[in-house]
């Protein structure tokens, strides 16, 4: 799964809210991007099903998803609203943003303690 959320989420939605508090969110391709998030309970169900699967399923590939593709803008707007925020959007081009994120990742790796960069290519990819 690409984006996992739910109880214990320390990555996806918390990072989105943190970003929304401090800056405008990137709006790529005119806001047409859509993603299928996966709830952690669905991941657990898939793991349990894999453990109980017959021998014929061994080595097979199965996709896990929430089953509902939603516009990124709607997901972010809803998450921000639940946190008492209003999402601010800034239209931008994806390629320059990805280059900048890659640079931030490279710099962060060279800093003491390798802190998490403010923006990552993975994070931007969720918005694209």
Give the biggest sheet. 2 strands, parallel
Class computed from helices, strands and strand pairing: mainly alpha
Number of separate strands: 6
CATH class of the domain at 4-91: Alpha Beta
Descriptive report:
With 128 residues, the protein is mainly alpha-helical. The chain has a domain of 88 residues: UDP-galactose 4-epimerase, domain 1, CATH 3.90.25. It is 46% helix and 11% strand. The chain is built from five helices and six strands, in the order E-H-E-E-E-H-E-H-E-H-H. The strands form three sheets. It has a two-stranded parallel ribbon with strand order 1-4. Strands 2-6 form a two-stranded parallel sheet. It is globular and about 50 Å long.
Give the gist of this structure.
This protein has 128 residues and is mainly α. It has helices at residues 12-22, 40-52, 72-82, 94-110, 121-127; strands spanning 4-5, 25-27, 34-35, 38-39, 70-71, 89-91. The protein is globular and about 50 Å long.
What topology does this entry show?
Elements: E1 4-5, H1 12-22, E2 25-27, E3 34-35, E4 38-39, H2 40-52, E5 70-71, H3 72-82, E6 89-91, H4 94-110, H5 121-127
Parallel strand pairs: 1-4, 2-6
Antiparallel strand pairs: 3-5
Task: Name some characteristics of this structure.
128 residues, mainly alpha, UDP-galactose 4-epimerase, domain 1, two-stranded parallel ribbon, two-stranded parallel sheet, 5 helices, 6 strands, 46% helix, 11% strand, globular
């Amino acid at each position: 799964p690409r984006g996992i959320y739910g109880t214990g989420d320390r990555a996806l939605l918390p990072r989105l809210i943190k970003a929304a508090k401090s800056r405008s969110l990137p709006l790529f391709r005119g806001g047409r991007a859509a993603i299928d998030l996966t709830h952690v309970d669905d991941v657990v169900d898939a793991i349990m099903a894999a453990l109980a699967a017959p021998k014929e399923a061994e080595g097979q590939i199965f996709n896990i998803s929430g089953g509902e593709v939603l516009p990124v803008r709607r997901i972010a707007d809803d998450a921000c609203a639940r946190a008492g925020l209003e999402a601010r959007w800034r239209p931008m081009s994806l390629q320059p943003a990805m280059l900048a994120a890659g640079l931030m990742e490279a710099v962060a790796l060279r800093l003491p303690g390798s802190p998490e960069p403010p923006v990552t290519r993975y994070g931007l990819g969720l918005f694209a």
